[in-house]
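Exercise 3.2. Students should predict the tertiary structure of the chain below and write it as structure tokens, then compare their answer with the key that follows.

Predict this chain's 3D structure.
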Amino acid sequence: MSKKRKMNKWIKFAIVATLYLLWVIWLGNYWWLLGLPIIFDMYITKKVHWAFWKKKNPPNGKQTKLVEWVDAIIFAVIAASFIRMFFIEAYTIPTSSMEKSLLVGDYLFVSKTAYGPKTPNTPISFPFVHNRMPLSKKKSYVEWLSQPYHRMKGFGKIKNDDVVVFHFPAGDTVPEKVSNPSYYQLVRIYGRDRVWSDKRNFGEILVRPVDKRDNYIKRCVAIPGDELKIVDGQLLINGKEQEPIAGLQYNYVVATNGTNINPKAFDKLKIAKADRAVMGNGKYFLPLTKENVDKLKSFSNVVAVERAITPKEKWDKDIFPFDERYPWNIDNFGPLKV
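Answer key:
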């Protein structure tokens, strides 16, 4: 082996080993230092043929086209999985709760280094899918090998009003055929025995590890130590009104003179069809921004646009903590210490 070639392999080893050491320090699990001898063998001693899909000494020093393709695919899958696990991941918006800021079906890339990536609880899983195999209802992961919860260090901490991606806490238990409402809400409505026994409507009851629960995207309005309270629809954090957020929506009752509002008008206002609740007698229940309120008031057949606020002390059994001793509702809630 020439001196230049020998030097090149040592340089490659030094670069890869340094990056690996930095990753182990970031991970905080020093058992992974046992991987250094493997890296040393891959680049220096080459006692073990780690790339078993390739011939060790191919004729003319070249691999076949098929082997080259396999090698490229394996490298791409490993590299993309590593990036997705520790640095950045793509998500789609599943629901309309963030509408006007984010729309249903929007794609966004989320940096995992902002608050620190979470190591997977189920490290062995099918690449590039979440909790189900493509075109199937089968699990995309195995549970016989699992790890405890661990979050690595990030560049910052969550602040008030940050938009964050998280694993839905109530998604630990999921009926196979129903994902919304949650299992716990279904139990409150129908009773546990019905949900577990009615396979035709609910299917099998699945239990998911933390990293395989459904991903939700929401705005974090309160952080640890804050006191959260809602008074007549106004959010208060530590007694102060929430800072104005562009596109913020509230529920309104829109009354007309008895004629219907043209659906095309709703389309222009970007009010989703799923959000257009017709109450009858020329009334609509709609989530609206301040701008849309002003526009609707200018319609010739609209006679009133009023905030829909649930009165204080009117208990909503679907609102946390689901206990009549706390008669809270969507517009009058708390105080709750985070």
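Discussion points: Residues 1-50 form one domain. The chain has three domains: 1-50, 89-220, 247-338.
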